[in-house]
Specification:
Rossmann fold; 3 domains; 7-stranded parallel β-sheet; 4-stranded antiparallel β-sheet; 19 strands
Length: about 450
């Protein structure tokens, strides 16, 4: 049906003020029919007395069924996501250029077209989740099953236990190794860190992105760095603040940090964090958030950066799973925690592929403030340091290496350990591998 431009102007001007009596006449019925054919819905409005006295324009049925929403979309690798959306005339809210992903305001149908055309790999919806905090089966306690003499508690017991001194004997100091730390920040005033902090980015409060502006408002990231420093004193730290002062994080800050880290060409990234609360997901479901994070980890892993992630502190017996990222990713090395008795720490999740000290670990929380701290957050840095050591040693001895070869070397060279795990329904012997830096270098030398 063709509609004259004058009539179309009449229909698309608003509001339409028409008396109640006029609604009954034939002309208005014809007018309404023409409007409907043009995709314009006219409906009467009532005045304070309840009488119909005006009508206004509303979105068409198709517009109401297909609203624009926020989505996080990943272009196929090798494609520029920003260019894809520019050509498609889709609004970009945030662009993660290095990751080839963007947050966009679009309809599902439009994104489906881009998936079908081969421009997008997938997308997930933002701002729609009302999920509860995740829970998983957990154990009650750990029973000691070792007969060895326990390690004596000292400031250096944990580093001595993983045989960190073997690195000095082999001249492995971290020279040329770039380690990323995704955490609460870093206190660069710590004397031991002198010359080590090579990069800093605040993705939470945007207080600065220079080394001089580096800070840590909680101490967690500084503690993590102090563990690595005593393993590789000559490595370089690239710190990405993703945690709020409360300790929580936001997945958008995490994506932003990975996007920046991508261009920093790191050797290792330590991740002593996890996504546990719906408020951290920007409205995504846990399933969608994990799918997106899994893709991000895979893409940065493809550049040669090795991702290390702490297993978690929920005493979970769930095996490594894509529903628990970042440590659940097949492109990350998952690290569980042990105590001074070489048993699984009673808070550690059991999905670690390698274990290291995580209970009563000594470190630096702030300049001149040293303490003992517990958590798989602090077993992860031992392995991050070990990965850096393995890379340096491999380079010096002209050995090729990859994520798989380094991960295999850690596990194959690890000490065989076990603990008795008690759950509400049963007890069982849990066997695991414990980090040994001396044996790690020997393994690389032999292979």
């Amino acid at each position: 049906m063709e509609i004259s431009s004058n009539l179309l102007d009449l229909l698309t001007s608003r509001p339409y003020i028409i008396s109640g009596d006029a609604l009954k006449n034939r002309f208005f019925k014809v007018l309404a029919s023409i409007a409907l054919a043009a995709g314009i819905y006219l409906h009467p409005l009532k005045n304070s007395e309840g009488n119909i006295n005006s009508i206004s324009q509303q979105p068409s049925i198709s517009q109401q069924e297909n609203p624009e929403e926020l989505y996080l979309a990943f272009a196929f690798e090798g494609k520029d996501s920003a260019e894809v959306f520019r050509i498609a005339n889709i609004e970009i809210v945030t662009d993660y250029n290095n990751l080839e992903a963007s947050v966009v305001n679009a309809t599902k149908e439009k994104l489906d077209e881009l998936v079908n055309s081969g421009d997008l790999e997938f997308y997930v919806r933002r701002n729609g989740s009302l999920e509860n905090v995740r829970t998983s089966p957990s154990y009650i306690r750990v029973i000691e099953d070792d007969t060895e003499k326990p390690t004596t508690l000292s400031n250096e017991w944990a580093h001595n236990r993983v045989r960190a001194t073997a690195l000095r004997r082999n001249n492995v100091t971290g020279q040329g190794i770039k380690i990323g730390i995704f955490d609460t920040g870093i206190d660069s005033a710590v004397p031991e860190f002198s010359g080590m902090v090579a990069g800093f980015h605040d993705h939470v409060y945007n207080h600065g992105d220079t080394i001089e502006q580096a800070y840590d408002d909680y101490g967690h990231g500084t503690f993590v760095a102090s563990i690595i420093q005593r393993i590789l004193p000559e490595c370089k730290f690239y710190v990405y603040k993703i945690h709020q002062q409360s300790g929580e994080n936001n997945i958008s800050d995490v994506f932003e940090a990975f996007d920046v880290a991508y261009s920093d060409h790191l050797d290792v990234i330590n991740n002593s964090w996890g996504l546990d609360y719906p408020t951290e997901l920007d409205g995504m479901t846990f399933e969608d958030a994990n799918k997106a994070l899994e893709e991000v980890i895979e893409r940065i892993s493809a550049t040669g950066t090795i991702v290390v992630a702490s297993a978690g502190n929920d005493s979970s017996i769930t095996l490594k799973s894509l529903q628990h990222l970042p440590d659940g990713s097949p492109f990350a090395i998952s690290v569980g925690a042990t105590n001074i008795l070489d048993e699984v720490a009673d808070f550690s999740d059991l999905d670690g592929e390698i274990f290291a000290p995580g209970e009563t670990v000594y470190g630096t929380r702030r300049n001149n403030i040293h303490t003992f701290w517990d958590g798989t957050s602090f077993s992860g840095p031992f392995v991050a340091g070990a990965v850096g050591a393995a890379i340096e040693y491999s380079r010096e001895h002209n050995r090729e290496y990859s994520f798989e070869s380094i991960k295999n070397a850690l596990i194959k060279s690890g000490e065989r350990q076990s603990s008795i795990i008690v759950t509400p329904n049963r007890r069982f012997t849990y066997r695991f591998k414990f980090l040994n830096l001396n044996r790690l270098l020997e393994y690389i030398r032999r292979h």
